[in-house]
Structure formats: C-alpha cells, structure tokens
Amino acid sequence: MSLILICLFGCQGFYWCLWVLLAFTISVENKVNHGNQSRIHKEINMNSFKFLVFSFVFLSSLVTKATVFSGVNRIEFNDPQYNKAFVGNGFLIEFENKTYAVTVKHTLLEAKTPKLTHIDFSHLISAWYIHPLREPQRFVKLGRLINRDPKEPIDMKILQKDWLVFEVEENNSDLSILKLRTSQIQPGETLTAYGCSYAKQRECYLDDYQFNFIENDQHNLRLTMGDRKMGALRGLSGSPVLDKDNQVVGIVSNILKKKSAEGFDFAPANLNYLLSVLKANSKAIKQGPK
Question: What is the pLDDT of residues 6-34, one digit of tens each?
C-alpha cells in the first residue's frame, strides 16, 4: 500500500518506487542469506547498504531539482492581523540580465487593508515572499516595487495593468528564472498555466492548466476556457502562462466575456504593460542616479 501511495506522486514518485523496490529486493535477499553469514555475505550486505544510501541521496537530489515555475505569495504586514499566508501566485523572470519577481496587482484587492489603498505599500508591508506551497523555507524575498505608484488606486481598473514588478532581495528558492517570449503566439497554440488554486491548496505542489490561444487583446490574451468552472481557478492568479518552450507569454489575471458567443474566455494579462515597466527600469539603471 505504501508503495502505491508513493507512486501516486507522479514523476518524482517514479524514482522513489524504484528505490523502494530495490530496498525490498535487497531486504529479501538478506533474509534468505540469514543464518549463513559468511565473510563474503557480510561484505555483500555492507555494499548493498552503501548502495542504498548513495541511491537515496541521489534520488533526493533529483526531487529537490524538479522544475518549479511558480510559488505562492505570502505577505507579512507591520500589523500582523492582516498577514496573508497564500494570496495568489508569483514567479521569477529575467530581462536584460537582471532577475525580477512578478505577480498580479489584483492580489492587493484580496490583501487590502484600511490603509492599503494605492500601489504604494512599503510603509505597510514588512516582507513579501514567494515560495512553494507548504515549503516556506525555500523562499524568494521581494525587494523594491519597481512600478510603485502612490497615485494609482487599488480598484478594478488595475486589471488593465495587472503586473507587480519587484526587485529580488534574496533568493533561497529553486524557482526557475523564466524568459519572456518575443515572437507572436499562433491561433490554436497550446499554452500552460503553472500554479496553485485555493480549491486544491491541500494537495497542490505545482498544478498545470492547459488552454488554447484565441487572440491578443489590448491588455489580455484570450484563451479557451473549455469546461472549467471559474471557481476552480480562483487563487491561480499570478501564475505564469508559458508556451511549449517554457517562455512566458502572460500572467493569470482575469476572465472576459466571449466576443461572439455565450460564456467566457480565460484572459491572462499579456506582456505589453510588463515590458513597458521593465524597459523603463532598464533605461533608469543605464542612466544612473540623477
């Protein structure tokens, strides 16, 4: 039964299944040889034990290095009554040889406090982390908010520019640093969102959700929803949307009413606003302090 449960964990579980089977085989062989413990048998048993230890360490490293595209947001406020252990997802990107942490602005609608009213919160939030769910020790600590705007209110209009872009203060995570796609997305192309929803937070490590590209709007991509229920996707906001080469094409943000039929399209924020923020920041870095 325990072997079956281990196998249920997918690719990583496959490695552990092999290790358990190997350990079981060696254990049976040792029981058969019990009572006939010659020097040769003892040496074989010791070598078997050493091999098990080595294989355990090796397989542990494989699991640790499994690809992780995103983590959940954990926000700590100066006033701890407002702390949020899981409010959407976030991830790392690379632009012009610099690493940034990103998530969606509308996480602030859920994390909003009486004093948190605009996109300017360094005086209210003591720390913001991104980490795999249930693994807070493998964290990215976010630094300065690059697109801070004390004049931008936290309301539904932020969905039109639904990116928060941070410097990275500290990275103790295994999160992949993702690159942005520069070529156009083709109609029908399969895209995948990687993250955790509130509905599956008890068992989620990194779920994947596939969609097909329809078209690019001003602020959003339009993707097929299929038969997914909107409630099942709640909490997935801030997850990266990647192409088959794991390049970023958008961030989970919104849904939009279909243009020509009943129902809704899945509508991640596209890269337009993000690129404007990143290019402005790169220009400011090159110009240096004024």
Answer: 343 444 444 445 555 555 555 545 554 55
Question: The tokens of 274 are what?
Answer: 């993000």
Interior/surface letters 150-164, b for 16+ CB within 10 angstroms, e for the rest: eeeebeeebbebbbb
Report the C-alpha gap between 101 and 273 in whole angstroms. Answer: 15
Quick one: fold of 71-178? Thrombin, subunit H (2.40.10)
Place of tokens 């919104």: 254
Instruction: Give percent of the chain above pLDDT 70.
Output: 77
CB-side exposure of 155: number of CA atoms within 13 Å?
4
Predicted confidence (pLDDT) per residue in 226-269, tens digit: 888 888 899 999 999 999 999 999 999 999 999 988 899 999 99
Residue 191: HSE in the Cβ half-sphere, 13 Å Cα cutoff:
32
At 86, which amino acid appears? F
| Domains 71-178 and 181-274 agree in fold | yes
Q: What are 29's two structure tokens? A: 């062989």
Domain boundaries, the chain: 71-178, 181-274
Instruction: Please state, in angstroms and as integers, the Cα–Cα distance from residue 194 to each residue in 16, 67, 281, following that order.
Output: 24, 11, 27
- For 60-76, b/e burial (b = at least 16 CB within 10 A) is eeeeeeeebbbbbbbbe
* Residue 171, pLDDT above cutoff 90: yes
CATH class assigned to 181-274: mainly beta
Quick one: which of 283, 71, 255, 277 has its CA closest to 163?
Answer: 277
| pTM for this prediction | 0.79
